[in-house]
Amino acid sequence: MYQRIRKPLFAIDAEFIHDLALSIFHVISKYPKLYKLIRTKISFRNSSKINVFGLEFPNRVGLAAGFDKNGEAYRGLSLIGFGHIEIGTVTLLPQSGNPKPRIFRVPRANALINRMGFPGKGCDYVLKQLTGWRPDGLIVGVNIGKNKNTPNESAVEDYLSLFNKLAPISDYLAINVSSPNTIGLRRLQERRFLEGLARKMTKRRDEFARKKGKKVPLLLKISPDLSDAMIYDLIDVVESNNIDGIIATNTTINRPQDANDSMPRTWKEGGMSGKPLFERSLRVISFINKLTNGHVPVIGVGGIFSVDDAKRMIDSGANLVQIYTGFVYQGPILVREIIDNL
Ligand SMILES: Cc1cc2nc3c(=O)[nH]c(=O)nc-3n(C[C@H](O)[C@H](O)[C@H](O)COP(=O)(O)O)c2cc1C
Q: Could you tell me if the CB of 297 is within 6 A of ligand 1?
């Protein structure tokens, strides 16, 4: 059914369709009675719960960051079966992001290219969306990033303020230092920035846990374009500061081998997600697993399009997986298939 409606949907601007879908899930999220009515019509197979970072996930499959940036639709989206949903990227202040169009489909590669640049309504708005009822068992993480106008030298202030506001209401927080569409953001993965960021954030996490009795796991979301030497350094910082886990990976600025100079300009700028990313994300996850002896939990994300892809990520060391582009291309059935077969 989804494959049939996909063709006309794919003829229309990608962000417009995304916003349309999101508004349907937003309406379901706003009305608990409507949510409950739909929930009674859906039967989920029992899947085994899994404990990661001290949290109990109802299954291993989550929705990756970027789909529900402002936390408006996660309750409705949970009806698809996701065990966790990552809201965001959320910035401290609202910002408009890059000019449109800024999401492109590349169907022949089963990929998307986006250069969104963290458009969002800001942290205070998201906070309001996160208060109130939650679907049973759903884990809600929030992915946080710095505002465009915040220089890297003071980025840590943005992340600390975001922690203060969002920790009381989030199950986990993901520190995003890997989106390619905010100039300079990925440099925060370098040791000279990352060390201070990791130290101050984990200190804040521990103070918060002591005062409030709630430990909010801190994850680091990383780029697939890091060299082995940079991953090695990064893992050293993660382990020495007790960061709780890694999300691997974000989108890539690299393009598949067959992309050449004749490709449209839209192929060149922005982060690519989907199938071309899969092998690279897998390799990064295996490498992390090897370096840490499996002691640092990983959420694997990047190009999962089938049950087999998800299994390979788990076999490479991922504890959980997330999906975005595969969901856009294959529809909700993919999520259910993976949950039922993992
Ligand atoms: C349109 C779009 C927007 C995204 N926005 C974000 C974001 O705001 N923050 C983030 O950490 N990742 C973002 N991502 C990256 C995804 O969370 C994910 O890491 C990446 O797309 C790889 O997974 P996939 O191949 O299953 O899509 C975005 C991806 C897409 C396609």
A: no
Q: What is the CATH number of the domain that holds 307?
A: 3.20.20.70
- Residue 37 Cα, ligand 1 centroid: separation in angstroms? 31
Give the closest residue to 218 by CA, choosing from 183, 166, 179, 181.
166
State whether the beta carbon of 324 lies less than 6 angstroms from ligand 1.
yes
pLDDT in tens, 34-66: 999 999 999 888 888 999 999 999 999 999 999
* CA dist list (Å): 129 to 49, 88, 94, 214, 317: 26, 12, 15, 20, 33
Which tokens in the block code for residue 95?
């910002």
Q: Is the pTM of this model over 0.90?
A: yes
Tens of pLDDT, residue by residue over 152-198, are: 999 999 999 999 999 999 999 999 999 999 999 999 989 999 999 99
Distance 179 CA to ligand 1 centre (A): 8
Q: Which residues, 6 or more positions from 37, have their beta carbon under 8 angstroms from its beta carbon?
A: none
Tell how far the Cα of 301 is from the centroid of ligand 1, in angstroms: 9
Residue to mutate (ligand 1; options 91, 143, 225, 324; most atoms within 8 A of CB): 324
Average pLDDT (139-157) is 97
Whole-angstrom CA distances from 322 to 34, 61, 67, 150, 327 are: 26, 6, 11, 29, 10
**Structural domain of 208:** 2-341
Total domains present in the chain: 1
pLDDT digits (tens, 9 = 90+) for 262-297: 667 767 789 999 999 999 999 999 999 999 999 999
